[in-house]
Amino acid sequence: MKTTLKIGVTNLSFHRIAASLVTNTLLEMGFDVKREFAPHQENFERLKSGQVDMLASAWLPSSHGIYKNDVEKEVPLLELGLHYKPYALWGVPDYVSEDVTAISDLLKPEVLSKMKKDIQGINPGAGITRFSIQMMEAYGLSAAGYNFHTGTEDDCFNAFENAVDEKQWMVVPLWKPQFLHYKYNIREIKEPKGLLGIVDKAVLLLREDKKEIFTKAQLEILDGLRFTNDIIAELDYKVSREGKDIDEVTKKWLQNR
Question: What is the value of pTM for the model shown?
Answer without folding.
Answer: 0.85
